[in-house]
Amino acid sequence: MEPLLSPSEFVGLDNITHLCSGGEAPWLAGQSRIYNEFAALTSGGQATRAQLYERVESCRGRMSELWGVRAERIAFLPHAAEGINWLARGLRWHAGDNVVTTGIEFPSVGYAWQQLDAGVEVRRVPANRWVVGESALLGACDQRTRVLAVSQVSFLTGECLDVERLAAGLEGTDTLLAIDATHASGVVRVPAQCTDLCVSSAYKWMLATHGTAPCYVSERAETSVADSCFGWRNLETPLSGVAAPERLPLRPMPFKLEPGNPAVLSILFLGYALDVLLEIGMRSIENHARTLALTVNEGLQQLGLAVISPDGETQRSGNTCFLASDPAALRDHLATERILVWGDHPRIRVSTHLYNSSHDVDRLLGVLAANC
Ligand SMILES: Cc1ncc(COP(=O)(O)O)c(C=O)c1O
Description:
Radius of gyration: 21 Å
Structural class: alpha/beta
CATH superfamily of the largest domain: Type I PLP-dependent aspartate aminotransferase-like (Major domain)
Distance between the termini: 26 Å
Mean pLDDT: 97
Number of strands: 12
Bound molecules: pyridoxal-5'-phosphate
Strand content: 5-15%
Low-confidence stretches: none
CATH topology of the largest domain: Aspartate Aminotransferase, domain 2
Helix content: 25-40%
Strand order of the largest sheet: 2-8-7-6-5-3-4
Largest sheet: 7 strands, mixed
CATH class of the largest domain: Alpha Beta
């Protein structure tokens, strides 16, 4: 398979086999133009500030295309952790409530709840042979489940949960469905419209950088969560007004969740990256990444390595992971061969994205074969 986007469109990929977008994506060379445009606009004083904000709104529109939800339901948070924590902080909890998540979750999804009173139970559904699955998660929910919070794609194993199936299983209940789509958004389709909260970092599969995390919030979640953060941007306030009323009304979504300036430069970079992704199309990117992931999965198994990622069509993602006794040492060894993967205990994560090709997979498997 040839890349959908040439590696030459990125900075620093000459002679590098880059298989680690699940850690940090390579940088699109075209972002230099965006930086220069930002520099000119930000130096232009008050006259050009409105143009910067217009670019923020245009990025919000692109996010709405990517996720299939209305733009005004998407706020730009500083990082993905804030999305799940906003929910944990603002819901009105009662003793006996519970949260369902997985036993192998990313910390901000699995532990945003640790500030809650002891009366709230966190049910951590364990993985069975590294797979969690929708049935086990739904089976752990009951009438007192306030939130089902999971990553769409696991950072640890690459398992892709069927978010629509989770939503269907919760239909008619009061349980909110909160999704961290950081390892999904930009590589597999994200059905944000059937969630109550969907948040994603921007610096991995969406090919942008740190500082902003788009977050979709449903009307139901918005009305269930108490407002806890107030500033110039989310209050209806005349900045130069002399009157100082006791309270000021809140602006509606999306500004409601943006009490201060969002990270404008990061959002401009995200806007450009989304242009690139949307022009190629999520269907093609998903198909490309999953097909390469299957080749990686099968190749690793043939080498006798302990693959922990599912190989089913829809359970696959861009991440394929295998256990290693010393992941850091193996990762460093691969780096000396100019192959970049992500390796933290207990596994190596191989990420396949739109700029990867079969040649990249062959190189990886060749070096691993020589090492086995
Ligand atoms: C599932 C998941 N969520 C979020 C993040 C990063 O979070 P943040 O944007 O809060 O830094 C990661 C990083 O590895 C992740 O794997």
